[in-house]
From TrEMBL:
Keywords: Phosphoprotein. The keyword Nucleotide-binding does not apply. This is Diguanylate cyclase (GGDEF)-like protein/PAS domain S-box-containing protein. The lineage of its organism: Bacteria, Pseudomonadati, Pseudomonadota, Gammaproteobacteria, Litorivivens. It comes from Litorivivens lipolytica. One of its GO terms (biological process) is phosphorelay signal transduction system. The chain holds residues 414 to 704 of 704 of the full protein. Residues 24-278 form the EAL domain.
Length: 291
């Protein structure tokens, strides 16, 4: 039922069962016109290098300022777009827009790190996914080394062989592959060493509970050790406090992302942010982690 699905889904599924169909239809229509009227925006969230204090990459996160439904999280409308077969149009738009933004920031010397874009399972399984991405890079002029693709654990599990070879092609081109929301996919770990991914993103649910729950400390520490052994970098997601950051630094975590450093920002705000911390954010003199 709608209650069990949590607060994020209430917007669309609070209606009784017999109204669900027409509700979905409204959303479908709204998504359609959002695509055609260019209503989406992209917010960029910094990913910090915990050693240098520099912004190493930014994650592109889609935003839908929508009058009819109010603020709607991508966690709601992206799955709906997937279900309705609109995800590829939306994704192509995000990819191209984010690449263009990256090119502009490079040209204006505002930011020259990687731009990370989220891909969902359906897109990765498109037979022409390599051509699509290559085409956008050529069209926009973003170098492949400046692009990262974020893929969730679940996506891998759905078709490991096929997805693996597509990802290997991307890696060979110089594109980075980040495994998103790591630790939440209920998958076997045995596939991980074979995956052509270079970065693991520890899901924010483990970072959130670092103090409340000892088991999250164990999980975060274990993921960090495993990544180190596999030669992968780690980005801790959802870092909101100095203590979380200090804990992660002590455990040798290389990168972090979260409200503590910066929220997802529209381009103008990110530009200000990037200029302000050009001299690097000093992470060393912040409160020490005390467990
Ligand atoms: P994600 O890729 O795991 O993105 C991280 C989410 O965590 C973002 O939510 C971000 O705003 C949020 N976040 C960042 N720092 C913090 C923090 O310190 N605390 C907390 N509590 N949250 C933080 P957002 O922007 O609502 O996006 C949700 C999900 O929607 C994303 O999860 C991603 O799976 C999906 N998504 C967003 N944009 C796109 C897109 O362009 N394409 C696709 N396919 N999926 C997208
Ligand atoms: Mg992501
Ligand atoms: Mg994530
Ligand atoms: Mg997520």
């Amino acid at each position: 039922s709608s209650k069990r699905q949590g607060r994020n889904t209430i917007n669309f599924y609070c209606a009784e069962d017999d109204q669900k169909g027409s509700n979905s239809l409204n959303v479908l229509n709204a998504l359609h016109s959002a695509i055609h009227n260019d209503e989406f925006k992209i917010a960029y969230q910094p990913v910090m290098n915990l050693q240098s204090g520099l912004v190493e990459s930014v994650e592109a996160l889609i935003r839908w300022p929508n009058a009819q439904f109010g603020y709607t999280s991508p966690e709601i409308f992206i799955p709906l777009a997937e279900k309705f077969g609109l995800i590829c149009q939306i994704s192509d738009w995000v990819l191209e827009k984010a690449c263009l933004q990256g090119v502009e920031w490079r040209k204006n010397q505002i930011f020259d790190g990687r731009i990370a874009v989220n891909l969902c399972a359906r897109e990765l399984r498109l037979p022409n996914i390599v051509e699509r991405i290559t085409g956008v890079l050529e069209k926009t002029g973003l170098p492949p080394e400046a692009l990262a693709l974020e893929i969730t654990e679940g996506t891998m599990v759905s078709a490991p062989d096929k997805v693996g070879s597509v990802l290997q092609t991307f890696r060979n081109m110089g594109i980075s592959i980040y495994i998103d929301d790591f630790g939440t996919g209920y998958s076997s770990l045995s596939y991980l060493p074979q995956l052509p991914a270079n970065v693991l993103k520890i899901d924010k649910s483990f970072i959130e509970g670092l103090y409340q729950e000892e088991k999250n400390v164990v999980i975060a520490t274990t993921i960090l050790q495993m990544a180190q052994n596999l030669g992968m970098a780690v980005i801790a997601e959802g870092v909101e406090t100095a203590s979380q950051m200090q804990f992660l630094r002590k455990k040798g975590c290389s990168h972090a992302q979260g409200y503590y450093f910066g929220e997802p920002m529209l381009p103008a705000a990110f530009q200000d942010f990037a200029c302000q911390i050009k001299s690097t954010m000093d992470l060393s003199d912040r409160t020490d982690y005390t467990a």
